[in-house]
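Posting here for the record, re: flavin-adenine dinucleotide.
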Amino acid sequence: MTDAASNDRRTQRWAVIGGGLLGLTLAHRLAQAGQQVSVIEAAPELGGLAAAWRLGDVVWDRHYHVIMLSDQSLRRILAELDLEQELLFDTTQTGFYTGRGFYRMSSAIDYLRFPPLSLIDKVRLAFTLFYVSRIKDGRSLEQIPLAAWLERLSGRRVFAQIWRPLLAAKMGDNYRIASASFIWSYVARIYAARRGGMKTEKFGYIPGGYRRILDRFAERLTAAGVSIRLASPVEAIERQADGVHVRTADGEDCFDQVVVTAAGPQAARMCPGLSEDERQRLNGIVYQGIICPSCLLDRKLAGYYLTYITDPTIPFTAIVEMSSLVNAKAEFDGLSLVYLPRYVTADDAFWQYDDTEIRRRFIAGLQQVYPDLTEANIKAFQVSRVRQVYAISTLGYSDRLPPMITSVPGLAIVNSAHIVNGTLAVNETVALGERAIPVLLAAADAQPAVQPQLEIAE
Ligand SMILES: Cc1cc2nc3c(=O)[nH]c(=O)nc-3n(C[C@H](O)[C@H](O)[C@H](O)COP(=O)(O)OP(=O)(O)OC[C@H]3O[C@@H](n4cnc5c(N)ncnc54)[C@H](O)[C@@H]3O)c2cc1C
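Prediction output follows.
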């Protein structure tokens, strides 16, 4: 982490492109290092994937977000924003819906009781988890296809009943092209929490949700002299003699250093001066997409925070009942807030459906799981679609990753694709930002200062 400004570091003008949590973390730490920072965000509000929206009369996160007890990097930022003490944690329940009913899967006892698996299956699953947890370095798994590896370790039935629904709930059909390092990072995260002394992981939130965190972040950044420009999609970034020029519809500004936090292909489009190799690396990243409706219901569901769906006739991959964690009376007007995520590949048929068609299919799916749910129970329904949520860790992923510092002097690209062998979460996003800061500052320090052009009188 970077704290105070280094005494002999010259102050440079920085633009951070993207006001998601990565951009905000970078801006915060750069300002603390004595730099002059502008954040330029395309959307009319900050937050990116963690932004809030209005659903009926409720303002809450547009995608479900929880904060884990073990999220140390994020909790440190929340402490700096004077919000950490407001975190509310609870133990939540997890369920499986198999087509024949619900099964709780929140403890070892639930797992031993889980009827779709025989005793031998359960032993094989336990062995797989133990085996994966003993692997020290996930990079060694980057050459191994995930699905075949898990099936070999756990058996076909365990793969179909447990692993496939878990993987589909995280990455849809992209599990077919992912490497085994994905599951290593997932298991490593769980075991890290346990090793940190936690018997059970807890989920939490800040009253007011991410809206509140983002408002406070913006307030603090502004007080520290950071300029925040919203509704300003960056069209092009180009190196010129006097610095790096950033063009938006409103005009052009010149900076000493620019850091782009947008997804790989978007970054490649903005930066025409990149080399062919850099362009190919950025465009070659395979991204996970999501279609994620939120609905407000006037009734509760089964009370699981997360229900994995193993029934392939249902169009979403999980049910997230946010109101099983969050105080619904205080935050949701007493209604239930439920998300129905469908993680999708770039060519999934569901991209072509409009909101009406998504609503029809997803509510029919929800009624399959809850046959007594009626149209009258649905008080609001809204669909979020994002094409580039996070990079799939495909075979040989880290060998093809573009470096953060580009070949264009003064231009860096740091984005969630640089979370290697980790899962996409705000904690990892903040940690990535903090890891990037010394790299960015070192590259900026190494660059000669641009000399103002002197006009020579004749
Ligand atoms: C469904 C879902 C559930 C999640 N659940 C959790 C959870 O429970 N807990 C958790 O910790 N994390 C969760 N996450 C992950 C979390 O949201 C991310 O880790 C984090 O928000 C990533 O931040 P980012 O800044 O890297 O990316 P983004 O949020 O994508 O930010 C990138 C920003 O760049 C902007 N941008 C792009 N192009 C341009 C341009 N041309 N000009 C200017 N700006 C541009 C975008 O508008 C965007 O604001 C979840 C994510 C999703 C999608």
